[in-house]
Amino acid sequence: MAIYKELIPALIIALVTTGYAQTGYAQDDTPLYRANSDLVLADVQILNVKTGVPAPALRARDLRIYEDDEPQEIVQFSRDELPLSAVLLFDLTESVRGVLKSLAAGAKDALGHFKPGDEVAVMAYGVKVRLGHGFTPDRQRTIDAITKTAEMRTNEEAYFNEAMYQTAQQLSTTGARRRVIIWFTDNYPNVPFRFKAHTEEEALRALHENGVAVAPILMKSALGGMIAFGAGMGEKRYAASHPPGDARKYAEVTGGEAMNLRGGKADERLSQLIDRLRSRYTVGFHPQGTKAPGTFCRLRVELAPDGALHPKEWKVLARQGYYRQ
Question: Least C-beta-crowded within 10 Å: which of 12, 87, 114, 162?
């Protein structure tokens, strides 16, 4: 959960606390204004179980939100009002490099799915995390950064947890925006067996504290499989107690959506993912009770049993919790 001391519109892709005025909508769609009080905002995606299609327009009364299993009153509800801060994060393994070249060729059309006020950064990682270009609304600068990253060569291993931690820190500088990591990866992490790196637990905390959703675009990699198969026993034992990270888990825990490339074009998948970010909902509530700063509070979002959608036909993606400030 991040703290933003400025006027914040209704929609954000993360969890936020603010001490300033808030505008939103209550159960009857009447605008609400809240001042000098904490507000927790949870980003939510609702997808059809069979087709994966996002839900149609909903109202606040169609959802229920719980903190530590206690129902909360929804005082804010909206869709796609706050600009995005998105990091395009690239695994530097060989399997992703080819996708990078394809993406660079079609990036102009794909990036056109962002709104003019959205800002995009480019990062890549192996053992180290590299900033290709900082946040900018200039799409040509982003295209140039993608092209440059596609030309990079490295034999480094891929440390997922370090990449997530460092990217979350980069996003912490963006202010009151929706924060998302669009991650191109083959989902084969290496274990930092002989190197010091941030752990999965540290990376997940950084994502929660900075209100970041992780949205991976996954591709197959025979090379990645061979690396995993060839790991030594010592490395495998270390991985059992020190998880090297998993793209699907990061998406699930942060409420993001994972997509498979499945032989499709990278620019088309990116376009689709950006459009789906626009279909997400945000529900806000004022947390009740006093809890010590740093306490992790579990969140659960469900469809209302008497709402517009039949709960068994839809799945709800939402962040699993936030940290009290």
Answer: 114
